[in-house]
Specification:
- The protein is mostly helical and 183 residues long.
- It folds into two domains: 83 residues, Winged helix-like DNA-binding domain superfamily/Winged helix DNA-binding domain (Arc Repressor Mutant, subunit A, Orthogonal Bundle); 86 residues.
- It has seven helices and three strands.
- Helix 1 packs across helix 4.
- The protein is elongated and about 65 Å long.
Protein backbone atom coordinates (compact mmCIF):
# COMPACT_ATOMS: atom_id res chain seq x y z
CA UNK A 1 0.00 0.00 0.00
CA UNK A 2 2.90 2.37 0.71
CA UNK A 3 3.83 2.23 -2.97
CA UNK A 4 0.43 3.62 -3.93
CA UNK A 5 0.40 6.24 -1.20
CA UNK A 6 3.72 7.59 -2.50
CA UNK A 7 2.58 7.45 -6.12
CA UNK A 8 -0.66 9.21 -5.12
CA UNK A 9 1.13 12.07 -3.38
CA UNK A 10 3.67 12.44 -6.18
CA UNK A 11 0.77 12.63 -8.62
CA UNK A 12 0.06 16.05 -7.09
CA UNK A 13 3.57 17.42 -7.61
CA UNK A 14 7.27 16.48 -7.17
CA UNK A 15 8.42 16.08 -3.56
CA UNK A 16 11.40 14.97 -1.51
CA UNK A 17 11.31 11.97 0.80
CA UNK A 18 11.18 14.38 3.73
CA UNK A 19 8.20 16.20 2.17
CA UNK A 20 6.43 12.89 1.63
CA UNK A 21 7.05 11.73 5.21
CA UNK A 22 5.77 15.07 6.56
CA UNK A 23 2.67 14.95 4.38
CA UNK A 24 1.96 11.37 5.41
CA UNK A 25 2.27 12.29 9.10
CA UNK A 26 -0.47 14.89 8.62
CA UNK A 27 -2.77 12.68 6.56
CA UNK A 28 -2.48 8.98 5.69
CA UNK A 29 -0.52 8.06 8.83
CA UNK A 30 -3.84 8.31 10.68
CA UNK A 31 -4.88 5.13 8.89
CA UNK A 32 -1.69 3.77 7.22
CA UNK A 33 1.61 4.17 9.05
CA UNK A 34 5.07 3.89 7.48
CA UNK A 35 8.50 4.38 8.99
CA UNK A 36 11.02 6.82 7.55
CA UNK A 37 13.23 3.96 6.38
CA UNK A 38 10.31 2.23 4.62
CA UNK A 39 9.50 5.38 2.68
CA UNK A 40 13.05 5.82 1.40
CA UNK A 41 13.43 2.13 0.56
CA UNK A 42 10.14 2.21 -1.36
CA UNK A 43 11.12 5.41 -3.20
CA UNK A 44 14.37 3.78 -4.37
CA UNK A 45 12.48 0.68 -5.51
CA UNK A 46 9.89 2.76 -7.38
CA UNK A 47 12.69 4.62 -9.12
CA UNK A 48 14.43 1.34 -10.03
CA UNK A 49 11.12 0.15 -11.49
CA UNK A 50 10.84 3.29 -13.63
CA UNK A 51 7.77 4.64 -11.83
CA UNK A 52 9.66 7.66 -10.47
CA UNK A 53 12.60 9.83 -11.45
CA UNK A 54 14.66 11.81 -8.99
CA UNK A 55 16.93 14.78 -9.09
CA UNK A 56 19.28 16.06 -6.44
CA UNK A 57 18.58 19.72 -5.69
CA UNK A 58 21.17 21.90 -3.98
CA UNK A 59 19.83 23.48 -0.85
CA UNK A 60 21.03 26.93 0.11
CA UNK A 61 19.33 26.86 3.51
CA UNK A 62 20.36 23.40 4.64
CA UNK A 63 23.72 21.70 4.46
CA UNK A 64 22.21 18.61 2.85
CA UNK A 65 20.99 18.48 -0.72
CA UNK A 66 17.43 17.30 -1.33
CA UNK A 67 16.46 14.45 -3.64
CA UNK A 68 13.18 15.39 -5.31
CA UNK A 69 11.04 12.64 -6.83
CA UNK A 70 8.78 13.05 -9.85
CA UNK A 71 6.15 10.63 -11.08
CA UNK A 72 6.88 9.21 -14.55
CA UNK A 73 4.25 8.33 -17.15
CA UNK A 74 4.70 4.69 -16.12
CA UNK A 75 4.08 5.73 -12.50
CA UNK A 76 0.88 7.53 -13.47
CA UNK A 77 -0.27 4.45 -15.39
CA UNK A 78 0.53 2.20 -12.41
CA UNK A 79 -1.44 4.48 -10.06
CA UNK A 80 -4.38 4.64 -12.47
CA UNK A 81 -4.40 0.83 -12.88
CA UNK A 82 -4.43 0.39 -9.09
CA UNK A 83 -7.27 2.93 -8.73
CA UNK A 84 -9.34 1.01 -11.31
CA UNK A 85 -9.05 -2.24 -9.34
CA UNK A 86 -12.12 -2.95 -7.25
CA UNK A 87 -11.52 -4.17 -3.71
CA UNK A 88 -13.42 -7.46 -3.43
CA UNK A 89 -12.38 -8.38 0.11
CA UNK A 90 -12.56 -6.69 3.49
CA UNK A 91 -9.33 -5.57 5.12
CA UNK A 92 -8.47 -7.78 8.08
CA UNK A 93 -8.80 -6.19 11.52
CA UNK A 94 -5.98 -6.50 14.04
CA UNK A 95 -6.88 -4.82 17.30
CA UNK A 96 -4.51 -5.40 20.22
CA UNK A 97 -6.95 -4.08 22.82
CA UNK A 98 -9.60 -6.60 21.76
CA UNK A 99 -7.13 -9.45 22.26
CA UNK A 100 -6.18 -8.11 25.70
CA UNK A 101 -9.85 -7.65 26.69
CA UNK A 102 -10.73 -11.11 25.38
CA UNK A 103 -8.25 -12.66 27.84
CA UNK A 104 -8.98 -10.32 30.76
CA UNK A 105 -11.04 -12.80 32.77
CA UNK A 106 -7.92 -13.77 34.73
CA UNK A 107 -6.82 -10.17 35.33
CA UNK A 108 -7.90 -8.06 38.26
CA UNK A 109 -10.94 -5.92 37.65
CA UNK A 110 -8.97 -2.78 38.52
CA UNK A 111 -6.17 -3.57 36.03
CA UNK A 112 -8.67 -4.00 33.24
CA UNK A 113 -10.59 -0.86 34.19
CA UNK A 114 -7.40 1.20 34.36
CA UNK A 115 -6.38 0.05 30.91
CA UNK A 116 -9.80 0.76 29.42
CA UNK A 117 -9.96 4.22 31.01
CA UNK A 118 -6.52 5.00 29.55
CA UNK A 119 -7.60 3.75 26.13
CA UNK A 120 -10.76 5.86 26.31
CA UNK A 121 -8.63 8.94 27.01
CA UNK A 122 -6.34 8.13 24.07
CA UNK A 123 -9.25 7.60 21.68
CA UNK A 124 -10.91 10.81 22.88
CA UNK A 125 -7.65 12.68 22.20
CA UNK A 126 -7.51 11.20 18.70
CA UNK A 127 -11.14 12.22 18.11
CA UNK A 128 -10.30 15.76 19.24
CA UNK A 129 -7.30 15.79 16.88
CA UNK A 130 -9.44 14.70 13.94
CA UNK A 131 -12.06 17.31 14.73
CA UNK A 132 -9.41 20.04 14.80
CA UNK A 133 -7.73 18.73 11.66
CA UNK A 134 -10.67 19.61 9.46
CA UNK A 135 -10.94 23.14 10.76
CA UNK A 136 -7.21 23.87 10.91
CA UNK A 137 -5.95 22.20 7.73
CA UNK A 138 -8.48 20.78 5.31
CA UNK A 139 -11.12 23.49 5.15
CA UNK A 140 -8.56 26.30 4.67
CA UNK A 141 -6.84 24.21 1.96
CA UNK A 142 -10.15 23.72 0.16
CA UNK A 143 -10.77 27.46 0.22
CA UNK A 144 -7.26 28.49 -0.82
CA UNK A 145 -6.52 25.89 -3.50
CA UNK A 146 -9.27 25.28 -6.04
CA UNK A 147 -6.98 22.75 -7.76
CA UNK A 148 -7.08 20.56 -4.63
CA UNK A 149 -10.84 20.89 -4.07
CA UNK A 150 -11.71 17.51 -5.63
CA UNK A 151 -8.95 15.71 -3.72
CA UNK A 152 -9.73 17.38 -0.40
CA UNK A 153 -13.39 16.31 -0.62
CA UNK A 154 -12.19 12.71 -0.51
CA UNK A 155 -9.74 13.55 2.27
CA UNK A 156 -12.72 14.85 4.27
CA UNK A 157 -14.50 11.53 3.76
CA UNK A 158 -11.56 9.61 5.22
CA UNK A 159 -11.38 12.10 8.07
CA UNK A 160 -15.09 11.63 8.76
CA UNK A 161 -14.49 7.87 8.98
CA UNK A 162 -11.73 8.49 11.52
CA UNK A 163 -13.99 10.73 13.60
CA UNK A 164 -16.85 8.22 13.59
CA UNK A 165 -14.49 5.34 14.39
CA UNK A 166 -13.02 7.16 17.37
CA UNK A 167 -16.45 8.29 18.61
CA UNK A 168 -17.70 4.70 18.38
CA UNK A 169 -14.57 3.44 20.16
CA UNK A 170 -15.04 5.96 23.00
CA UNK A 171 -18.71 4.97 23.33
CA UNK A 172 -17.87 1.25 23.33
CA UNK A 173 -15.11 1.73 25.93
CA UNK A 174 -17.51 3.67 28.15
CA UNK A 175 -20.04 0.84 27.93
CA UNK A 176 -17.33 -1.76 28.71
CA UNK A 177 -16.17 0.23 31.72
CA UNK A 178 -19.74 0.48 33.03
CA UNK A 179 -20.26 -3.27 32.58
CA UNK A 180 -17.01 -4.20 34.32
CA UNK A 181 -17.76 -1.84 37.22
CA UNK A 182 -21.00 -3.80 37.69
CA UNK A 183 -19.24 -7.20 37.88
Amino acid sequence: MLKYILLGFLNYHPMSGYDLKSLMEESTAHFWHAYHSQIYTTLRKLEEDGLLESEEIESEEAKLNRRVYTLTDAGRQELAAWQRQVMTEMSPVKEDLLVRLFFSGSRSKQETLSELVMQRQLHQQKLDTYTALAAEHLLPLMESSPAMLAESRYWLMTLEFGKRYEALYVQWLTECITQIEGF
